[in-house]
Design brief:
The complex is a heterotrimer. By secondary structure, chain A is an alpha/beta fold. Chain A folds into two domains: 179 residues, Rossmann fold (3-Layer(aba) Sandwich); 157 residues, Rossmann fold, CATH 3.40.50.2300. Chain A is 45% helix and 18% strand. Chain B is mainly alpha-helical. A two-stranded antiparallel ribbon of chain B has the order 1-4. In chain B, strands 2-3 form a two-stranded antiparallel ribbon. In chain B, helix 1 packs antiparallel against helix 8. The longest helix of chain B is centred in the first third of the chain and has 31 residues. Chain C is mostly helical. Chain C has a two-stranded antiparallel sheet with strand order 1-2. In chain C, helix 1 crosses helix 10. The C terminus of chain C is likely disordered. The chains are: A alpha/beta, B mainly alpha, C mainly alpha. Chains A and C meet through helix 1, helix 3 and helix 4 of A and helix 1, helix 5 and helix 10 of C.
């Protein structure tokens, strides 16, 4: 019928309008990308909202300080540095969108910050052939994106060997250990496997690996499960707040020798110490791996003090864990641009991206602010400093480190 | 054997927390015909306010008082939002509104309290004061308070709702608001009252959580809400006894999985068991009192 | 044709349109069914796995994933069909959680790391656009058919609808299967758009966007998600960073405001009818046309 045909054509017209809508609202190409003629524009993907914002915000501040410091010292090859920020919000959809935006014109990309977003972004960077510089994720987890990604981090195996050898050396009678792990983070699960390998190499038996979910209502069941095996050592690869709860519960149920407890680096956050202090210094005596200690370098002190004035003593420590890496990453990019002599000319983008990639994959003895000399290692990692500490009065006190004297 | 008893004790305590949450949500369903997807988040944000007050004033009494006030005020403030949709019988929209409120509360906790990091209370507040220990078994005062409070709240609410005139009035209103209006029941006053009662229960839950856990995180609220809903389904929608029974069952299942199987599966196994039970018996273990 | 960024934006918008449609369909007969989220995961994982590890032709893997998602939704619907609105909401949320846990613990599917390195689909954008057109026509036809009216009746009063002879259980099974299949289609497109699949991608975060799109756009017609998915996704891309951090607050507030003030959403049935009427005026009795003042 004629009427039905008219309705049908109207429907099709509406469909066409809708599809045109899809095209019309797509932005013009290059609208969001600045042309780097008189400045270096580097994309930076960070999580300033969502569950990771607690670390993303100090990281963002620290990175701003790096930009200010670089620009007040003359910029990069005489031109100012401008950071183009994008919020990944620990959401893989957003991370992919940020990465694709960054890959449109960026010479090199910093971030994403969270490990999930890094995994989502890697194949995109590799396909677009743009270099990613990240921090805090082990090289084992960036192989999918190689050689278009490097991480300011050590291999898991190296970290495990350093931590476990120091722990076992100080507890020679310890022969049976239980490990508590956070199951949701792949990197930490692999760290547990590396810890297990290192311990077994030293004649220490791992009796069980017990899951403790983040923010779990009940840690008692997991603690009872551990204690019924009569271990003489406990290794915790957990989030900071859960580490304190587990160690308190262990103490409540009879496991009081804190020297026989090891806490891994990623628990090195301010709330670990705040909660420990609230719990009558329940963690004193525990050994702990750390990425950084209370800053001793002038730059480190300045950052620590600056953030302390802004956000208080408790939050200042986040600079050490979350901020330093990307402060240094910013400087490393400056170094890469200056050492390779790239011009930022959009016409030579592909060629210059390759030059940056090659430089970042073969760094030798770069004198990083706060960290001393670092070099690239095979697999995309760097020789970043690691510390072995012991907790005293709910603060980490360094005992030894990987820094070559 | 003692390990099993210790694990069962842990399961009963966490089960009591689930039951308390489910009882609060059941109360709102029975008297206000509302399924509150933001209940857990409201409880946890009042814990965060308690922590903030403690840090600013160092007063335990004042901080508990603030937790109670925040809890009650939150439920009170939500009531007029939900009333509009209820009167138009928009069930799905009510669910989604409370989901949206829950998301706003979680985001507020992520952004404005302790920079989104978990919070902890001093040792003196957590645990409740004393503890009985026998090798691996340990029962704190807080554990006892939580279990006793769960059973007591069930008894008190059941008595109030089913044996007192006021309670019957509230239930009648939830069942048929038009007829209740014709009978001269002051609808607005009674609905507000029912939300305030839910607020008090939520305040009690917040305080008990502080004593039992000594810590909280922004995602705890969503977790508790979700478990509370699942427990309600397991026990039977609108069934107070079912809410308590369901809570204990879920707590025990999770503790046993954590104690003897792969801990990461505890939540999934708990949910799986609930799904299995309601597939066989959609009305829940003790039967439905209210349609969801 | 487009830059990587624009291509990705369009594919993401297509993904949200399809997922919103997948959720809109059961919503329009009174069910809060979150199946599209896990159906998208099943489809994406299947396609990634068979194309990477068994070297299936990429389009076969893509369509295979959609079929599998549909079959899964069908099987599940046989259990979920009798559930009430609330039970359906909680049960499907629980299933999202259970399926994520299963995926995180299956090492051959990449575990918590997920999978990448599977082949690309060329012209994915074209497939995406064609999918949008086909699904829109399907939904439009469904909406204007006897089924569509039956769905509306169930939404308004399911008891009365049953007493009038509408088989709500059968309807629920069909709706859930279609919804799951559309979810699978969305998942397949998005997996190949990203080039990676991970258990967290198709999770609870998706629900906030989807509900906002449906509530704001309109829950009773398919036009709402079509117009509002692009708008609601793209706005945060172009607002200043200082405002973006309030994104989740804003989405929550938008949902609340619309639910209270405009629970039908922007594009209501009435609006669609008025537009249709304005475009296609009806003939009056006696042969004249109404609507343009030319009565005879």
């Amino acid at each position: 019928m004629k009427q039905n045909r008219k309705i049908y054509f109207c429907e099709m017209a509406l469909v066409a309008i809708a599809l045109v809508n899809l095209f019309l609202i797509s932005p013009s190409e290059g609208a969001s990308t600045k042309v780097a003629v008189d400045r270096w524009t580097i994309p930076f993907i960070n999580a300033v909202t969502g569950p990771a914002a607690g670390l993303g915000i100090p990281l963002d501040w620290c990175q701003d300080q790096a930009v200010n410091d670089i620009n007040s010292a003359g910029g990069i090859a005489g031109k100012p540095l401008v950071i183009e920020k994008c919020d990944e919000a620990m959401d893989p959809t957003r991370a992919a969108s940020c990465m694709k935006k960054a890959a449109t014109g960026g010479l090199v990309v910093m971030g994403p910050m969270t490990s999930l977003s890094i995994r989502v972004a890697q194949p995109i960077a590799k396909s677009a052939e743009v270099m990613m510089l990240v921090a805090y994720i082990s090289p084992e987890f960036i192989q999918d994106g190689r050689p278009w990604i490097v991480s300011l981090s050590r291999n898991l195996e190296y970290r495990a060997e350093f931590d476990m050898s120091n722990w076992v050396q100080r507890n020679p009678e310890m022969k049976k250990v239980v490990i508590f792990q956070l199951p949701i983070i792949a990197e930490w699960r692999d760290l547990v496997k590396a810890h297990k390998k290192s311990l077994e190499k030293r004649g220490v038996q791992v009796l069980d690996v017990i899951d403790v979910a983040q923010g779990s209502l009940d840690v008692s069941s997991a603690v009872v499960r551990a204690l019924k095996l009569n271990p003489d050592g406990i290794d915790t690869v957990l989030w900071a707040s859960d580490t304190v709860r587990v160690i308190r519960e262990l103490g409540n149920r009879g496991f009081k020798d804190t020297k026989r407890i090891f806490i891994h680096q990623s628990a090195d956050l301010s709330e670990l110490y705040t909660m420990a202090a609230e719990a009558n210094n329940a963690l004193d005596g525990c050994y702990m791996g750390a990425f950084a200690i209370t800053p001793t370098t002038p730059v480190g002190k300045r950052l620590f003090e600056g953030y302390r004035k802004l956000k208080g003593q408790e939050n200042a420590r986040k600079i050490a864990w979350a901020g330093e890496g990307y402060y240094i990453a910013t400087y490393l990019i400056k170094e890469a641009i200056e050492m390779t002599g790239v011009t930022g000319d959009p016409g030579k983008l592909k060629q210059e991206r390759t030059m940056i990639r090659d430089y970042l994959n073969s760094v030798k003895d770069y004198d990083a602010p706060m960290w001393g000399r670092i070099s690239s290692i095979e697999g995309g990692g760097f020789t970043i400093p690691l510390y072995f500490t012991q907790i005293e009065n709910s603060k980490p006190v360094p005992i030894t480190s990987t820094i070559q004297k | 054997m003692e390990a099993l008893l210790a694990i069962i004790e842990a399961g009963i305590v966490s089960g009591s927390i689930y039951s308390l949450i489910a009882v609060g949500m059941t109360l709102l369903l029975v008297v206000a015909d509302v399924i509150q997807f933001a209940y857990g988040q409201a409880v946890v944000i009042s814990i965060f306010f308690c922590w903030l007050t403690l840090h600013l004033t160092n007063s335990v009494v004042l901080s508990f008082f603030v937790a109670a006030v925040v809890s009650t005020v939150l439920q009170f403030v939500l009531e007029p939002l939900l009333r509009t949709l209820r009167e138009r019988k928009l069930v799905l929209e009510t669910l989604i509104l409370t989901i949206a409120v829950g998301m706003i509360l979680t985001e507020a906790m992520c952004q404005y309290f302790n920079a989104g990091m978990p919070i902890a209370f001093p040792d003196s507040m957590a645990g409740g004061g004393w503890a009985l220990s026998f090798r691996l078994i340990r029962i704190t005062a807080a554990d006892l308070y939580v279990v006793v409070a769960t059973v007591a709240s069930l008894a008190v609410l059941a008595f109030f709702l089913f044996k007192t005139r006021q309670g019957k009035t509230l239930r009648a209103m939830a069942y048929n608001i038009q007829v209740s209006r014709l009978l001269g029941i002051p609808i607005r006053k009674c609905t507000t009252l029912s939300f305030v009662v839910a607020g008090f229960l939520s305040a009690l839950t917040a305080i008990l959580l502080i004593l039992a856990l000594g810590a909280a995180s922004p995602v705890l609220g969503e977790n508790l809400t979700f478990k509370g809903l699942a427990v309600m389904m397991l026990g039977g929608m609108g069934n107070l006894k079912g809410a308590v029974l369901g809570g204990f069952i879920l707590g025990l299942i999770e503790a046993l999985v954590r104690g003897y199987l792969i801990g990461d599966w505890a939540d999934a196994v708990g949910m799986g068991v609930i799904m299995f039970v309601i597939t066989l018996k959609p009305a829940g273990l003790l039967g439905q009192v209210k349609q969801g | 044709m487009f830059s990587l960024y624009v291509n990705n934006l369009l594919l993401t918008v297509i993904f949200f349109i399809l997922v919103s449609w997948a959720c809109y369909l059961p919503f329009s007969c009174g069910q809060l069914y979150n199946g599209p989220a896990f159906c998208a995961a099943i489809s994406g994982y299947f396609a990634a796995y068979v194309t990477k590890c068994f070297h299936w032709p990429v389009l076969l893997g893509f369509f295979g994933g959609i079929v599998l998602a549909g079959l899964f939704a069908l099987g599940l619907s046989l259990i979920l069909a009798p559930f009430t609105g609330f039970q359906m909401a909680v049960a499907t949320m629980a299933l999202i959680f259970i399926i994520q846990t299963v995926l995180k613990n299956l090492d051959f599917l990449g575990g918590v790391v997920g999978m990448s390195g599977f082949p690309e689909i060329k012209n994915l954008l074209v497939i995406g656009l064609v999918s949008v057109v086909i699904v829109l026509i399907l939904l439009h036809r469904l909406h204007n058919s006897r089924w569509g009216r039956a769905m509306e009746a169930v939404d308004v009063d399911s008891e009365m609808a049953r007493s009038m002879g509408i088989d709500a259980i059968k309807m629920s099974i069909v709706i859930q299967t279609i919804s799951g299949t559309i979810g699978g289609l969305a998942g397949g497109i998005y997996t190949f758009a990203l080039g990676t699949v991970h258990p967290e991608i198709f999770g609870f975060g998706l629900l906030l966007y989807t509900y906002t799109i449906i509530i704001v756009g309109g829950r009773h017609t398919p036009w709402g998600p079509l117009f509002f998915a692009p708008i609601l996704w793209l706005i945060p891309e172009f607002v200043p960073a200082g405002i973006v951090k309030y994104r989740n607050f804003m989405f929550g507030a938008i949902i609340i405001v619309f639910l209270l003030a405009m629970p039908e959403g922007v594009i209501t049935k009435g609006l669609v009818r008025r537009i249709k009427f304005a475009l296609v005026p009806k003939k009056a009795e006696g042969g004249g046309w109404v609507g343009n003042g030319k009565n005879t």
